[in-house]
Amino acid sequence: MKKFITTLKNIWSIEELRNKILYTLLLLFIYRLGSFIVIPGIDPNKLDALHSSTQNSGMLGLLDAFVGGAFSKASIFALGIMPYISASIFMQLVTILVPQMAKIQKEGESGRKKINQWTRYLTVIVTLFQSAAYIGYLKSPANAGALIPGYGAGFFWVSTVVLLTVGTLFVMWLGEKITDKGLGNGTSIIIMIGILARLPQSFMQEWTARSTGGAGGLLIMLLEILFLVVVILGIILLVLGTRKVPVNYAKQIVGNRQFGGARNFLPLKVNAAGVMPIIFAQAILFLPTFVTGFTNSGFAKYFTDHTNWIYMLVYSFSVIAFTFLYTALLFNPKQMSDELKRNNGFIPGVKPGKDTADYIGTIMDRITLPGAILLALVGILPGLVELGFVGMQQSFATFFGGTSLLIMVGVILDTLQQVETQLLMRQYDGLMSGGGRMQGRQAVSSGM
Hints:
The protein is mostly helical. The chain has helices spanning about 1-15, 15-35, 50-55, 60-65, 80-95, 100-105, 110-140, 155-180, 185-195, 200-210, 215-240, 275-290, 310-330, 335-340, 355-390, 395, 400-425, 445; strands at about 240-250, 250-255, 255-260, 265-270, 345. The chain has 2 domains: about 1-180, Orthogonal Bundle (Preprotein translocase SecY subunit); about 210-410, SecY subunit domain (Preprotein translocase SecY subunit).
């Protein structure tokens, strides 16, 4: 505890780091404040039906979790940062699949600025379409009671589209400002704050439900908390897990100086695809609900209940398949082999060139399979936990796995890594004792 307090004092004593933390907290406060501003034409006292229908729908509930409940509050930030995330996903896939876009990306800073600008334009287009869909959702029979009758229908449509679009662009601007002048990746932190905003309410609902059951209920609550800690530790291992491939560099003598000759490691991540396989799998399972018009009837009912075994099996196979697909798109063993050869590096006992590429590809395939299985287990863990702990509230069960917990763990690790870097640069002890150092991961926005 004493070392922890000393570390906090060291963090606060660094003026640059202190200003970054305060700046980030200020922008996050503005974001959370805006999530409670209701769209004009909506009666905030009649949003119970909207909140109930959102919580009972898998994909809409996930979206509402990402935006911190702003979706079910009919807020001006109802769409949050998600249109920008969707545009970023599309642009990243385009840069991988289209050679012309890949060439632009390799142009350095100028290419990055072009792609970022196109991503912003695409964000506006995506937001316009999602705003129109959100208006249709608000006008559905189940939610139409929240609309103010005297508010003009045409003006409501135009004003809502404009406000939602501007709200998304403003949240995107907040994320960019946090990235530039704050601490961590702004887009990732905004998503994480939206997820964490629901944790206190979910915890209190679970506490209330368990406390009414007497001493036995409180004991079950304690077991749930302990299991949640174990799950978080397991996800940290999954996020940071790497296979280190030894690499040697040939010695070169130029004049009187010797270069190379060092031994290093090539880190291959167990979970190279990040949260993308889970997102893709959830999007696929959402299609039956979309086809049936959000009625959850017929075969669609199997894909909205995350405690259903059919849902779990289809979901698991989808996550494993998308993990291999997305890893194959991102990971290029031939390119890594060429880079090693260009820098006079080689793997001991393996010939440079094609043999090295095959060796790296084989190792990646071997570690991707257990990583994919563990990722699928994380995805279905909320349903398994809800079945195992009878009576657990669904809102609290969502924090035991899935996209939400993966994002939270990844963003927190990435932010703590930046804090530790600032401490080590100024000759302070890092956040971790001993010789180990915290390893970061890709930010959510770039990983998506």
